Amino acid sequence: MFRYTLMRLGVFAGCLLVVWGLVHVGVAPRGFGDSNGLWIVLLALVISAPISFVVLRGVRDRASVQIVERVDRMKANLDANRNQEDAALDAGHAQEQASQ
To answer: What pLDDT was estimated at residue 100?
Structure first.
């Protein structure tokens, strides 16, 4: 997951540099008034999203598999803990019934 995040940031940084260069040269519009910095960042975000979606597909799929495995392990641990608690409560109830 960390690798995917770093790669996604790298794609964004590359797009940010390209957009900044295009705006600086005058190929892309400068934005409205004093919004030049915000315009560059938003345009880089819009451009980097589909690029990341296509280019980082394999890394994203591997990261999602890791997340699913982690969630499944956590669910199994919660179920095991719940079963231990149920067994302890059942044993306590059985002792109460036996003592009465």
So the answer is: 66
The predicted-structure confidence for 60-97, as pLDDT tens digits, reads as follows 999 899 999 999 999 988 888 877 766 666 777 777 77
Instruction: Parse the chain into domains and list their residue ranges.
Output: 1-55, 57-100
Specify whether the CB–CB gap between 44 and 31 falls below 8 A.
no
pTM: 0.66
**Could you please report the per-residue DSSP string of the chain?**
-HHHHHHHHHHHHHHHHHHHHHHHHTSS---STT-HHHHHHHHHHHHHHHHHHHHTHHHHHHHHHHHHHHHHHHHHHHHHHHHHHHHHHHHHHHHHHHH-
